[in-house]
């Protein structure tokens, strides 16, 4: 599968290049500077802050021994470790407006899905026939992600609030990767066809699936859907350049690029149409951005960041979370940006 480079994958000379152009925070408004809160769960040597909802953040971190643990950080700043009993590694990845968290964990050689309610109750799950389950997104208690069958082929699934699981694939798919679900149960994601082309899709709760691709795309990767059904993500063109993408609720497609960089990757879209993400510059350093509904774009970095990766934007409040690299030791730390 063709993949977009992540902060954690930037090592050696490429990460050194990031450190050489470390910048101070850039204002997102001409009237006021944004407020950054940086954090790490206790014992973390590398923090990934994956999702934010109503000011609460979830993600995972690596400890000094090399194991991964999930965490939930309350709006007040208290971090709670999320470790599934019997797991060697736990990865929390998404939180909804009720404070319910989903993710996956490793037990033996297999991954399994889990959900954790706000009171700490944990349920684990796997779709029928799963030989490895990845849970990626939750909204109103419904979860989507993908699982591998006995032949190591990935298929999409949705686990509804009551626990029922439906599995699905777009017609012609040989690789299905749902990425995001909204509170109405509409799912977006990407799939690969038999000619190795990747396409975006929307799946309605009744099971109907709509395929979409921006003009000139050779690889379409939707990553987030808001309550209104608008989608954001990115796509590759025939030259291998990466462009931002917004699909309006009515189906209109808009591609966009940031002047500052050569690879634009949105990460989330909120209910007002603000798009948050990050962009690579010509030195392979990542910088955060916020695209306003009127098309204006502001870029930002936490102070002294060598690399900024945006993961999520709060659906209601517009707060942004992600991680950034320390230029002195290249350790990654979580951040919350309040505009």
Question: SSE layout and pairings?
Answer:
Blueprint: H1 12-20, E1 35-39, E2 46-53, E3 56-62, E4 68-73, E5 79-82, E6 89-95, E7 101-107, E8 110-116, E9 122-125, E10 133-139, E11 142-148, E12 154-159, E13 165-168, E14 175-181, E15 187-192, E16 198-203, E17 209-212, E18 219-225, E19 231-236, E20 242-247, E21 253-256, E22 263-269, E23 275-280, E24 286-291, E25 297-300, E26 307-313, E27 320-325, E28 332-338
Please characterize this protein's 3D structure:
It is a single chain. This protein is mainly β and 339 residues long. The chain has 1 helix and 28 strands. The chain has one helix at residues 12-20; strands at residues 35-39, 46-53, 56-62, 68-73, 79-82, 89-95, 101-107, 110-116, 122-125, 133-139, 142-148, 154-159, 165-168, 175-181, 187-192, 198-203, 209-212, 219-225, 231-236, 242-247, 253-256, 263-269, 275-280, 286-291, 297-300, 307-313, 320-325, 332-338. Mean pLDDT is 90; it is low at 1-30.
């Amino acid at each position: 599968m063709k993949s977009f480079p992540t902060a954690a994958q930037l090592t050696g000379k490429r990460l050194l290049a990031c450190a050489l152009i470390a910048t101070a925070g850039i204002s997102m408004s001409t009237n006021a500077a944004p407020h950054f809160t940086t954090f790490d769960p206790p014992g973390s040597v590398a923090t990934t802050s994956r999702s934010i909802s109503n000011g609460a953040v979830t993600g995972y971190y690596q400890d000094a021994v090399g194991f991964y643990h999930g965490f939930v950080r309350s709006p007040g700043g208290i971090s709670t470790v999320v470790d599934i009993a019997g797991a060697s590694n736990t990865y929390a990845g998404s939180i909804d407006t009720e404070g319910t968290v989903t993710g996956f964990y490793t037990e033996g050689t297999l991954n399994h899905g889990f959900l954790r309610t706000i009171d700490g109750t944990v349920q684990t799950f796997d779709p029928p026939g799963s030989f490895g389950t990845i849970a990626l997104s939750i909204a109103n208690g419904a979860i989507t992600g993908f699982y591998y069958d006995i032949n190591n082929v990935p298929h999409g699934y949705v686990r509804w609030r009551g626990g029922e699981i439906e599995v699905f694939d777009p017609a012609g798919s040989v690789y299905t990767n749902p990425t995001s679900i909204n509170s109405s149960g509409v799912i977006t994601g990407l799939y690969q066809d038999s000619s190795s082309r990747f396409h975006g899709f929307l799946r309605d709760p009744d099971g109907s699936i709509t395929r979409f691709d921006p003009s000139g795309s050779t690889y379409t990767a939707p990553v987030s859907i808001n309550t209104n059904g608008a989608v954001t993500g990115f796509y590759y063109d025939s030259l291998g350049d990466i462009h931002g993408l917004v699909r309006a609720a009515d189906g209109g497609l808009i591609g966009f690029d940031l002047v500052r960089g050569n690879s634009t990757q949105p990460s989330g879209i909120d209910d007002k149409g603000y798009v948050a993400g990050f962009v690579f510059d010509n030195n392979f350093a990542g910088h955060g951005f916020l695209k306003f509904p009127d098309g204006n774009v502001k870029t930002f970095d936490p102070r002294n960041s060598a690399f900024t990766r945006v993961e999520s934007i709060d659906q209601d409040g517009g707060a942004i979370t992600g991680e950034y690299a320390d230029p002195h030791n290249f350790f990654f730390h979580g951040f919350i940006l309040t505009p």
